Amino acid sequence: MKRGNAFQKRRGEGRAREPGEFEQKLLDVRRVARVTAGGKRFSFRTVVVVGDRLGRVGVGVRKGQDVRGAVEKSVRDAKKNLIQVVVTSKGSIPHEVYGKSGSARIFLKPAPEGRGIIAGGAVRTVVDLAGYKNIIGKILSRSGNKLNNARAAIEALKKLKSPKKKAEEPRVPKEEDVATDDAAKADVLHNE
After folding, report:
1. Which of 10, 114, 115, 178 has its CA 20 to 30 A from that of 63?
2. Could you report the per-residue pLDDT of 70-107, keeping only the tens digit for each?
3. Domains in the chain, ordered, with CATH?
């Protein structure tokens, strides 16, 4: 067995996922304090992104007494806040879009096939777990807050509209069109 295969199996990448199963990535862990009469009480705040790489993605944030408990709460919160996004056949988005959350502003743009994910930080994690293969993302603000950047990416993805498919039905001429066509033919015949 190769070393790479053993590593993949430990991480769970070698197995096929069941439908409805989500992948999760931890974006941020912070220690927060609440001041009480006896001193400070510390807890942990975690930010988690979950997605199935098939068009569903969500961001969750919760606090807990330990990191593991906070992560579990964040995953439950992210699953409650899932959104369905539009993924084109090329693995990109149909059009350019902006997103804003707090002071964070981001810009998402479709990329040509084979280009890959060109984005950084929390935006990269969100679009990757949503299932995009070719996308360009840019954080426009100087915000280093991963939670706001991830929420801005979600807001941008909510604004996407699916591309309209053109109907292949033949156009039925209206009565006015037929009347003007007959008048045009009669005029042409009259001039000859």
Report:
1. 10
2. 999 999 999 999 999 988 888 899 999 999 999 999 99
3. 22-158 (3.30.160.20)
